[in-house]
Each structure stands twice: as structure tokens, then as C-alpha cells.
Amino acid sequence: MSERDVALKEEKQRAREQWAQDPCGEFYGREYEFGTREFFDRVERHRYEEYAPWMPEVMGFNDFKGARLLEIGCGMGTDLLQFARGGAKVTGADLTPRSVEISRARFRLYEMPGEFVITDGERLPFADKSFDVVYSNGVLHHTPGTDVAVAEAHRVLKPGGTAKVMLYHRNSLAYWGELFFRRGILGGELLRGRSMQEVMSKWVEISNADARPLVKVYSQREARTLFRMFREVKTEVEQITRPELRLFKNIPESLFLRLRRTLGWNVIITARK
Ligand SMILES: C[S@@+](CC[C@H](N)C(=O)[O-])C[C@H]1O[C@@H](n2cnc3c(N)ncnc32)[C@H](O)[C@@H]1O
Known about the structure:
Elements: H1 3-21, H2 37-51, H3 55-59, E1 68-72, H4 78-85, E2 89-94, H5 97-109, E3 115-118, E4 131-137, H6 146-156, E5 157-168, H7 173-186, H8 196-203, H9 220-226, E6 232-238, H10 253-263, E7 266-272
Helix pairs in contact: 7-8
The site of S-adenosylmethionine (SAM) has 23 residues, from helix 1, helix 4 and strand 2.
């Protein structure tokens, strides 16, 4: 095994341990017993009512009835459950055994059908052209070979199939305002010699266990380049909450929406094979 392969293997193991300690969204259900209906319902309410009310429509939870849908990095299965409720035949894949275990238990609790696989998105154990939809939310910017994972998504999609992927947005208020200016400059992180990569790793994911994941950001143009092997590629920007605007949090809704759709923290790529 080459030095690079060893480093990659270690990076993946670190990711597995970190995501096992910090299943994405767990923090927001913390007032309830983990794994109960109350807990999962609270996690959903936080995501779709408080944090990202745009998600059901933009991600198209009800648009894939009857389609075979694979989610790469399903975490606790929060979005996957919405696609299943919308009638998609879902498969959840995740690098972290604990994520798969939680998703499986959650689907059982809600009596929804779904298949689950522990696997690296950079090496999917599926035949070519086996899915109508590949979805991934907030995952591929955490894996070293983002381009390799995109190529895998392309490979397992049927011709005409859709990839829907959310990556973090470089040209955003979160990146320049919160991470660069507030943490990097005012907080002194950059002045102490830390890189933006290190600043993001420390401050991006909210966690109980002081997580330090790999985090990358993409402009819309970089995201389109990443998906250039697809026939059609569209990008949209979303994700700001009013509290992030601090003194300006009470701006009119129309201005808020415009900001969210230009300087938001998420780039959503919709690509057709
Ligand atoms: C930030 S969480 C997002 C989870 C979920 N998509 C959501 O929106 O709640 C990242 C998840 O991606 C998984 N992950 C990270 N790298 C991965 C990879 N290379 N292949 C598959 N899953 C991966 C982690 O185990 C973790 O569950």
C-alpha cells in the first residue's frame, strides 16, 4: 500500500469515528431520548421548519415516486425518510456503521421500507446504471476524493437519471462572514497561522464531541466543473437563517430570500446523466 493509500485509509477511519460520535442532526433532538419517535420528530422539525424550510421543495422529496433512489452518506436517514414517504424505493449508504444502524432503526420505527449499506461513496458496491436518482446532502465535501465519489454517482445512475447533491458554498455569508472574518480574523485563527481548511474543520459542524472533519467549499462554477461528465448541470444556492444576519435579522422577506439564494451556505447541484 502506498503512503497516500495509508493516509487515505486513516482519514476514512477518522471520519467513521467522528461521525459515529456525532450523527448529523442528533444535537437538535437532544431534549428527547435518543432513538425515540419524539427524538426523530424533533430532528425533522428543526431541519424542515427552523433550519432549512426550502429543502422539501428544492430537494424534491415528493418528486421521485416509484424511482430507485440511493443516498450517499444518509447519516441518521432524515432526508431518506422523506423520499421514502414520497414513494421512492430508497437505499441508504454510509461510511459509518453507526449511521446505518440508526437509519435502519429509524425506518423500522416508522414502518417504512428501505435498504441500507455500509460503504464508502468513493467505491459503491452497486452495478452500473442501477439507480434513477442519487442524492447526497452535506457529505461529498467531507470526503477526500469528492471527484471520485461524483464519478461513482454517475456510474451507478441510469442514463437520464438525476443526481442531486448539496455541497458547501464558498461565495457565501457563512464562509466570508462567519468563518473568514469572525473566526479567522476577529477570532485570530488565521493570524495564528491556521489555514481556512483548519478554521472550517473546527467551526463548521456543530457537535458535542469537538468534531474536526475534513471540510471543503465550492463556488457554483467549481461545482459545475465537478459534475461536467453529466449531460445537464444546474446549480442553485440556498441556506441562511435570520439569526445569522444578526443586526439585520428583521429585513423584509423578499430581501431575505434574495440573500439566501445568492449568498447561502449550500450549493445544490442537479445533474442529469
Ligand atoms: C454531515 S453528515 C450528513 C448526513 C446526512 N446526509 C444528513 O443530511 O443529515 C455526513 C455523513 O456522511 C457520511 N460520510 C462521510 N464520508 C463518506 C463517504 N466517503 N462515503 C459515504 N458516507 C460518508 C458520514 O458517515 C456521515 O454520516
